[in-house]
Specification:
The complex is a heterodimer of chains A (361) and B (79). Chain A is an alpha/beta fold. Helix content of chain A is 41%, strand content 18%. Chain A contains 18 helices and 11 strands. The longest helix of chain A has 17 residues. Chain B is of the alpha+beta class. Chain B has one domain: SH3 type barrels. Chain B is built from 1 helix and 5 strands. In chain B, a hairpin with a 2-residue loop joins strand 4 and strand 5. The chains are: A alpha/beta (361), B alpha+beta (79). Chains A and B meet through helix 1, helix 2, helix 3, helix 6 and helix 8 of A and strand 4, strand 5 and helix 1 of B. The complex binds iron/sulfur cluster. The site of iron/sulfur cluster (SF4) has 15 residues of chain A, from helix 16 and helix 17.
Chain lengths: 361, 79
C-alpha cells in the first residue's frame, strides 16, 4: 500500500493527465475553486497550476480554518487566556494570528498559552494541571470538530473547557454562491472534510444551485482526476458531485464522526473573516455541554468592535478567491511567514503562506 | 494547523492506537473509527483517526491513474 502514493505522484503521469485536459476545452475561460488549505499546499508543492491549460484557473477559497477565524474570536481567546487560573491550549498557527493582540503577545504579557497538536493533548494537559482551567481554543472544519466532539464525549476532567470556533464547509459554499459577482464554474471539494461528512450535504447544495463538483484527494493525480471530473461535467452541461477520492470518502461519510458532532454541537450563525456572517456555519456546544463552554462559563463573548484587517491586509479578498496573494502589495515585502500581516500568511494552510513558500526563485 | 495524513495502524489498546508511516510513529485516538484493526490504513488528523482507507479503492485509484495517463513511462510503484 505504501507504493500507491508514489504512483499517484509520478511526474510523467501527472504531466500526461494534465495534457489530456486540453481536449476538454469548452471554448471559454473556466475558473474552479478549491476550499482546502491542504489542496493549496499540494497544488503549490507539485506545481500543478503550471501544467493546466491557459483557459483553466484554479483559485483558493476560504479553506484555511485559521484564516477564516475572525479577529473578534481570537480576541476572545486572548481575554480568556488572561484570566487568572486559566491555561489556554490551541494550535500553533493560531497563536501567531494578529488580532487586537495575538495569543503570542498575550503570552509575553504573562498569559499561559500552550501549543498542542490536537484536542487529546489539551485534555492530557488538563489532567496534568488539576488546579487550573484548561481551555482548548478549537478551530477547524468538520475534520477537527469531530475530534473536539469525541474528546468531550470521552469524559474529560472537570477542569477542561472548549472555546469553539469550529466552522462547517457546506454553508460557506452556499454563501459563496449567493455572493454578488462572479461565481466559480466548479468546486473541488475538500477530501478530508468529506471523509467525515460524506457527499450528501453537497448534493443538497445542488438542489439550490447546479454547479459541478468533485471530491479531491491530495496526491497530484487525485487532484487532476477531480479537475477532469469537473471539466467533463462542464462539457456535458451537468452538475453533480463526483467522488474522485473513493478510497477515503464514502457517500455517508464517517457515521461515528458525524454522530459525535451532532451530539455535542449545534449549528449557529457565525462570522467568517473576509466573508461576513454565514447562517448555520458555526458550531456551538449544545446545552448538555454548556458547562464546558468557556465563553458561557466566564460570561464572555466576542466583541464585534474588533476589526479583522486594520492593516490593509487583503486576506478577505484572498479568502474569497477574488485576489491572488501575489496581487497584494504587501506579499513578500513586508508580509512574510516570519513576520505576517494577516492570517493567510501565518497559517501553514494559508494561501499566502503556501504561495510564498513555493514561489519561483 | 495540522494536515491530515495516511498512517498504518500497528497496534491498538481500546480507544488508543499506535500508527506509523515512513518510519514516523505516533499515538492516535480511535474513538471515531471503532472497528479498525491493526494493519489497516487510517487518515489521521490532529491526533485522531477520522477514517479508514479502503485498500481496494486505493488500488483502483492507482489503476485509474495509470489508465488516465497517456504517459507510457515505467510502471514503478504499482501495487
Ligand atoms: S500577503 Fe500578507 S498582507 Fe497581503 S493578503 Fe496575504 S497575509 Fe494579507
Amino acid at each position: 500500500m505504501k507504493e500507491w502514493t508514489s504512483g499517484l505522484r509520478d511526474p510523467g503521469r501527472v504531466r500526461g493527465l494534465a495534457a489530456e485536459m486540453a481536449a476538454l476545452d469548452p471554448g471559454r475561460p473556466i475558473r474552479l475553486m478549491h476550499v482546502c488549505g491542504t489542496h493549496e499546499h499540494a497544488l503549490c508543492a507539485a506545481g500543478i497550476r503550471d501544467l493546466l491549460p491557459e483557459w483553466l484557473t484554479l483559485v483558493a477559497g476560504p479553506g484555511c480554518p485559521v484564516c477564516v477565524c475572525p479577529a473578534s474570536e481570537i480576541d476572545l481567546a486572548v481575554r480568556i487566556a488572561a484570566l487568572p487560573g486559566v491555561t489556554l491550549a490551541t494550535f500553533g498557527d493560531l497563536v501567531r494570528v494578529p488580532a487586537r493582540i495575538s495569543l503570542a503577545q498575550a503570552r509575553t504579557r504573562g498569559a499561559d498559552v500552550r501549543v498542542v497538536y490536537g484536542v487529546a493533548d489539551a485534555v492530557a494537559l488538563a489532567r496534568s494541571l488539576p488546579d487550573r482551567t484548561v481551555v482548548f481554543f478549537a478551530v477547524g472544519f468538520e475534520t477537527t470538530a469531530c475530534t473536539t466532539a469525541a474528546a468531550l464525549r470521552a469524559s474529560p476532567p472537570d477542569n477542561f473547557q472548549v472555546l469553539s470556533s469550529h466552522r462547517l464547509v457546506p454553508p460557506a459554499l452556499q454563501a459563496l454562491l449567493d455572493l454578488p459577482g462572479e461565481t466559480p464554474d466548479g468546486f473541488l471539494l475538500p477530501g478530508h472534510v468529506l471523509t467525515v461528512t460524506g457527499t450528501k450535504a453537497y448534493e443538497d447544495l445542488l438542489s439550490r444551485r447546479p454547479i459541478p463538483m468533485a471530491v479531491a484527494g491530495f496526491e497530484p493525480l487525485d487532484i487532476l482526476q477531480a479537475i477532469r471530473a469537473i471539466l467533463e461535467q462542464v462539457r456535458r452541461g451537468r452538475a453533480e458531485v463526483v467522488n474522485a477520492y473513493p478510497r477515503a470518502v464514502r457517500e455517508q461519510g464517517n457515521r461515528a464522526a458525524r454522530e459525535a458532532i451532532a451530539e455535542v454541537f449545534e449549528a449557529a450563525d457565525a462570522p467568517w473573516r473576509g466573508i461576513g456572517t454565514i447562517p448555520g456555519s458555526g458550531l456551538r456546544l449544545r446545552p448538555a455541554f454548556r458547562h464546558r463552554d468557556a465563553g458561557e462559563v466566564f460570561g464572555l463573548a466576542p466583541d464585534p468592535a474588533v476589526q479583522d484587517a486594520p492593516t490593509g491586509c487583503r486576506c478577505g479578498e484572498v479568502l474569497l478567491g477574488r485576489q491572488e496573494p501575489e496581487e497584494c502589495p504587501f506579499f513578500g515585502n513586508p508580509c512574510v511567514p516570519d513576520d505576517p500581516m494577516g492570517p493567510c500568511m501565518v497559517a501553514q494552510e494559508g494561501t499566502c503562506a503556501a504561495r510564498y513558500r513555493h514561489r519561483r526563485a | 494547523m495540522c494536515l491530515a495524513v495516511p498512517m498504518r495502524l500497528v497496534r491498538r489498546d481500546g480507544p488508543v492506537g499506535w500508527a506509523e508511516v515512513q518510519g514516523i510513529s505516533r499515538e492516535v485516538r480511535l474513538d471515531l473509527v471503532p472497528e479498525v484493526r491493526p494493519g489497516e490504513w487510517l487518515i489521521v488528523h490532529a491526533g485522531y483517526a477520522i477514517e479508514v482507507l479502503d485498500e481496494e479503492e486505493a488500488r483502483e485509484s492507482l489503476e485509474m491513474a495509470l489508465r488516465a495517463s497517456e504517459d507510457p513511462g515505467t510502471v514503478g510503484g504499482g501495487p
